[in-house]
Structure formats: C-alpha cells, structure tokens
Specification:
about 325 residues, 8 strands, alpha/beta, Lipoprotein_PsaA-like, Rossmann fold, about 45% helix, transport, single chain, four-stranded parallel sheet, globular
Length: about 325
C-alpha cells in the first residue's frame, strides 16, 4: 500500500472513530437520563388532571399513580410506581394525609403538596367535640382531604403545581404559569356557573344526602346543608343485612329529602330496593357522583371539570333544576 493510501485510510479511520464516539456519547446520554424532559409523578386522578393542564405541551412526562375509578384511599404502590417515584424530578400529591404513601416514598425536596395554602375542614370521622364518630367509611384523620371538590380549592392546587414545577424546571417556568392561569380562568368560570345555577334554590332548600363523605368542601362553598346521618352506610361495598337495610331506609326517610347520592360501586339491586322502600331516588351507578376519583376517558367524569359539571347537574336535578352544561 502506498503512503498516500495509508494516509487516506488513516483519515477515514479517524473520521469513523469520531463518528462512533459521538454516537456512543449520544446513546450514553439517553441511557443515563440525557433525555432532558422532566419526569413527574402525580398521585390521584384529580392531581394528575391538574398537572396535565399545567404542563401543557412542555414535553414533561407524567406518571399517574391512582387510575380512573380507583379510590385514592386505597393506594398500593407497584414496583413500577416506586421506580417512577424514585426517578421523578417532581412528585405531586394531594396532601392532607390522603396519599402519604406516595409522598413518603419520595425525597422530600421533590414533593409538591397541592394542599398548601388551603383552609382545611375537620374530617367527617370527628364530631364537633373532636370525638370520633361511629360511622363507617374511610378514616380521614383530623382533617378532610377532599379539598378538590370546591373549585376555589382546585384553583389553589393548580397554582401550587405551577409554582412547584417552575422551581423544578425553571426553563419552562413561564409556560407553567401561563398554562395555570388559562386553566384557572376555566375554574373561575366553572365556579360562577355553579353559583348561578344554584341561585333559584333557596339556601334552606339546598339539602344534600350522600352515603360518602367526599363533598364537605363543596357543600360549604355553595351553602348546601348536608345531612350526615347516612354517611358511610354503604361505603364498605358489602351488601347490607336486612336489619342494616331497614335502618338505612329509616334514616333516609327521616332526612325528608327526595334524593340520596351513593357511590358508583353500590349494588344496583340494593340501590333499587332502598329507593323503593324509602320513596326517594337513589343516585348510583352511572348517576353516581364523582367523588374520590375521576372516570375513564370518554365518561362524564373524564376530567375534573367534566366530573364537576356532572355532579352539579345531578344535584341540581334532585332539586328540580334542569341545568345546561357550560362551555368551558
């Protein structure tokens, strides 16, 4: 081989080696997390929905722990969940001890608690004297964690998410804040629609009875009287005995209301019998309210706004209102 050919081969070899080195570097960066997208874990369905609205098209990746129609009270982390939490840049939680299993698994400096700045209410498991009630249901502790049910609180949760992500990912801080403001405007419009929709019903006639204690913040926000006598009566998802069913019917009759809202998991046969014997309409199944969880894609409760419109429409219907869903 001539010296010219040797020199040419050497140059080609150097170029090829450089190309391989660059390729290897690129692959190594991706394998080692060189992917510059922000990785976020969101605990509940509501928190995940808020987070998606704040993130927008920034490219951040979101892992949602609680899935649609699953209760946030029964979170069990899978190996994949734990790995996602460990590798996350931010872990966004509801707070108020609802999803502590998620925040406990994360580094404290990664956690964004959406309950920050929200005035909390006493949990339903305690009475006015601070003593535990005898009702069944989830043990919420001293404070009610269902903060999202009032749109005003949802607004604060969204802002907390935007502020937290802006600290985590300063490069997209403006986008997070702009997205949050746009979504908060929709929440403000939702709040106004609810207020206007309920105006025809006098506050004294705004009575609400549910077998689940997820709506404390909602009823307070809209001057609704909630009768707690049947709370937890069907929350354990077990079919009530004949004696328990008759006690429940008696409690419902004593409230004087025309409708009772139950969880979606209540057996339709049980719901029908309760309704027939008590003379009230029992909203359950597809007509149940979205409380602890949002619904699946395509359902009436696929997003927080959709779920809230669904709930308000049914509550209004129980008071004789015929509401039209707003364009938000």
């Amino acid at each position: 081989m001539t010296r010219h050919h040797l020199r040419t081969a050497s140059v080609i070899g150097l170029v090829a080696a450089a190309g391989l080195a660059l390729t290897g570097c690129s692959q190594g960066e991706q394998a080692d997390g060189g992917d510059q997208s922000v990785h976020i874990v969101a605990s509940t369905t509501q928190v995940a929905d808020f987070t998606r609205n704040v993130v927008g098209d920034t490219g951040a990746e979101i892992t949602q722990i609680v899935q649609p129609n699953q209760s946030a009270h029964d979170i069990e982390l899978t190996a994949a969940d734990s790995a996602a939490i460990e590798g996350a840049d931010a872990v966004i939680v509801n707070g108020v001890d609802l999803d502590h299993i998620v925040s406990d698994a994360a580094a404290s400096d990664k956690v964004i608690d959406t309950s920050t700045g929200i005035t909390l209410q006493a949990g339903e498991e305690e009475d006015e004297a601070g003593e535990a009630s005898e009702g069944e249901g989830h043990d919420h502790g001293a404070e009610d964690p269902h903060i999202w049910t009032a749109p005003e609180n949802a607004r604060q949760m969204v802002q907390n998410i935007a502020d937290g992500l802006a600290r985590t990912d300063p490069d997209h801080a403006d986008a997070y804040q702009d997205n949050a403001q746009a979504y908060e405007a929709r929440l403000d419009a939702l709040d106004q629609w609810i207020t206007t929709s309920f105006e025809p019903v006098a506050p004294d006639d705004r009575k609400f009875v549910s077998t689940h204690d997820a709506f404390g913040y909602f009823v307070k926000a809209y001057d609704i009287t909630q009768d707690d006598s049947v709370l937890g009566s069907l929350d354990d998802h077990a079919e009530p005995s004949e004696a328990e069913l008759q006690q429940l019917v008696a409690k419902i009759e004593a409230t004087g209301v025309k409708a009772v809202f139950a969880e979606a998991s209540v057996d339709p046969k049980v719901a029908d019998r309760i309704a027939q014997e008590s003379g009230v309409r029992l909203y359950s199944g597809d007509d149940a309210l979205y409380g602890d969880s949002l619904g699946t894609e395509g359902s009436d409760g696929a997003t927080y706004i959709d779920a809230t419109v669904h709930n308000v429409t049914l509550i209004g219907q129980s008071w004789g209102l015929d509401l039209t869903a707003p364009e938000l």
